[in-house]
Every structure is written in structure tokens, then in C-alpha cells.
Amino acid sequence: MPGRRPASPVVTAPRTVLIVGESLAGTAAARHLRTLGHTGPVVLIGAEDHGAYSRPPLSKAVLKDPAADQTLGLALDGLDVDVIRSAAVTAETRRRTVTTADGRQVGYDALIVATGAEARRLAAPRQRGERVLRTLDDARLLRVRLAEAGSAIVIGAGFLGMEVASACAARGIPVTVVDTDRPLERILGDHLSAAITARAAAYGIRFVQATGFATLTGDPVSGVALPDGTELTADLVVTCAGEVPCIDWLAGTGLADRLGVGIDHACATTVPGVFAAGDVTYLRGDGTRPDRRAPFWSNALAQGRTAAASVLGLPPSGPSQDDYFWTEVAGLTVKIVGRLPLIGEPTTVQGSVADGRALLTWSHADGTSTAVAYGLRKPVTALRALAATSGPPSQ
């Protein structure tokens, strides 16, 4: 019996991966696809004229120094990525196509949704003059306004709001922050919020606690009205009230809801062949945990890499959630590794929060821990090690 001929190798053409969103998550995915050896076409649809850039420095550096504008770019050089600078307007997941604003229809084998989010706005329809900080253009315009303003109001006392208020105070501009909770209280808890509020006051940042939502007044905007009848006015009013995921272009696909695009730990959506990463996403809950949005820089980077691996059918090289955060408030740097929000008193304290130099940990009921460097120059690797070795609370 003659020997059998060896089977011919199955040759699979490299798949086209389409990334929608020239964001940190989108560019991280493109870069990681190439790192993992993908040789097929990679197409990236991005709506920003400036291309991809890092957003955290917008409030930390760009508001202070025009030279910082040139340090933000996230280069795609050498990656052989076809970039289309036109917003995605519709997606057809059955046909596996995305249509752009300039009429192009782009096909794909696998899709990564990375369109991020836009600033939440409070202005009434056709009310002019509301300022937000989400894009490079926003930051440049706000920097000009800061140079002219004699007073400012910031709505929102989260990370972004307190960073913008700090930029105002650093320029000697009297600034008032308005929120229903004390500065960073919803994120960092009572213990650190009290210290940060006191430090901000000493730095020249006034805080007004409202009983409900503030309303922008004037056209163009010139102040805010609070539920108790108080009215505040200023030369500059900046809304820092969170973000809204950019999902309009996904209408009819079943991919998105009010929280954004739901993903699992592999960054897979509920639609085959479609993955998502970054600020547009939320981690779908299960019986033990709720849905969770975590629109932070570290997560966008981790999810971009995870989505790239999942597209290629490979296991991720690390977790898709990276709970690392940092901020600068009233001249003080705060770095955090671990789950937020922080509840109750810290488990351990080294140094003094009152003196502006402390290393703290919080132990959570699930056995995880959070480490905080408050005013200390602590490498993030050291904070990760501390968070990993801190034990659960004693019974």
C-alpha cells in the first residue's frame, strides 16, 4: 500500500483587526498586536485631529506650561497601522463593517472598540460658554482663560476638579469648588478627604458643599445656582462632573447601554469578534459583584493589551484591571494602588497625614488591600508590593 501523502499545511490569511478610537487603549492595542506577532492589517479609526495623546497631563501639566503640549503624543511609528481620521458613525456587526463620517465603509475580522468618553456637561440646550477639560483643545482654551480670569468656579470635587482648582490657585486665582460631597470623599473616603480639604483651603481653594445638583447660570455661563438659593458668580466656570462613554455610533448593535460597552476579564463583549477597552467600557458584574466602571489611565492601558491578546486567541500577559491612580492636589502628590473607594480608617499608617507625608494601607473584607503614598515619592512598584503583601483585616 503506497504511503500517504503528507497533508498540506492549512494556510490562514492574516486577519484584519479594526480599532475604533485613537485613544490610549486603542494605541496600546495596536502596539500590542504587533508585539504579539500579528502580521495582518491593523486599521485605526480616530476622530481627533491631533492624533493619539495622553490625557492625564492635560490637567497636571498643560494648564501650567504650553511646552507640555509637545510631550503628549502616543506615536504609532513603525507599527504599519492604517489610520483613518474620521469619526465612526455606525457599525454593522453582522456584516462586520464600520462606516465613518466621510462615507468610508471599513471591514474587519475582529473589532476593538476604544472610543473612550467625553466630558459630562451641565449646560442647558443652547446655553453657551460652559468649559470642560477632556481634550487637548479644551486644555489649551482653558489655559488661555486662566491667564485672563480674576475668579473661578469648579463644579466637581473629584480628581479632575481638584486638579483644575489647584491650577487656578497656583496662578493666584480665587477659586471655589462646588460638590455635594467633600473633596475626593467618594473616592478616598473620610480620612483622606478631611486632610485634603484642609490642605486645599490653606492653598487658597474654597469649598462649598451643595445639597443637590448645581445649575449653570448666565448665557454665556457666568456662575452657578445651588438648590438652597445660593448663587455664585465668577469670570470662569469649569464643569468637572465626570464623563459619558462615546457609544452613539454603536446604536442598534446591542453592544452598549448607559454604562458603556460591557466586557469580561478578557475584554470580550457579548458580540462574537468584538472586544472593547478603555473609558468606553465597564466590567460586567456577576452574582458576587456589580457592574463596574473604572475610567482611569492604568485600566485603559491594561485593557488595550488584553483586548489585543484576546483578538489573537492568546491569554493576556497581565490582568485587564490595573487599579493604579495618582493625582496632584494643592501641591501634594497622591499615588494609590488597589481598590477604591476607601472606607473607614486605614489599617496601617507610617508618617503623618497632617504633615503631608504618609504611607497608608486599607485592608478590605475580600482580602485585598489598597496602598496610598500621600505626599511621598514612592515608586509604584513599591506600592504594588505593599498592596500585595498587606493582609486582610483581623477578625
Range of strand content: 25-35%
The percent of residues in helical segments reads 10-25%
- Major sheet: arrangement of strands: 3-2-1-7-19
Task: Estimate the mean pLDDT confidence.
Answer: 92
Number of domains: 3
Question: Termini, distance in Å?
Answer: 75 Å
Number-wise, the strands total 25
Detail the poorly predicted runs.
1-13
Tell the overall outline: globular
User: Which structural class is indicated by helix and strand composition?
Assistant: alpha/beta
CATH architecture of the largest domain: 3-Layer(bba) Sandwich
The CATH topology annotation of the largest domain reads as: FAD/NAD(P)-binding domain
Give the helix tally: 7
Which CATH C-level class of the largest domain is it?
Alpha Beta
**Gyration radius, rounded:** 23 Å
Largest sheet: 5 strands, parallel
The name of the CATH superfamily of the largest domain reads FAD/NAD(P)-binding domain
What does this structure look like?
- The chain is of the alpha/beta class.
- It has 3 domains: 17-118 and 244-311, FAD/NAD(P)-binding domain (3-Layer(bba) Sandwich), CATH 3.50.50.60; 121-241, FAD/NAD(P)-binding domain, CATH 3.50.50.60; 331-389, no CATH class.
- The chain has 7 helices and 25 strands.
- The strands form 7 sheets. Strands 3-2-1-7-19 form a 5-stranded parallel sheet, covered by helices on one side. The chain has a 5-stranded antiparallel sheet with strand order 21-22-25-24-23. A 4-stranded parallel sheet has the order 11-10-9-15.
- A hairpin with a 4-residue loop joins strand 23 (348-352) and strand 24 (357-363).
- The protein is globular, with a radius of gyration of 23 Å.
- The chain starts with 16 loop residues before the first strand and ends in a 6-residue tail after the last helix.
- The model is unreliable at 1-13 (pLDDT under 50).
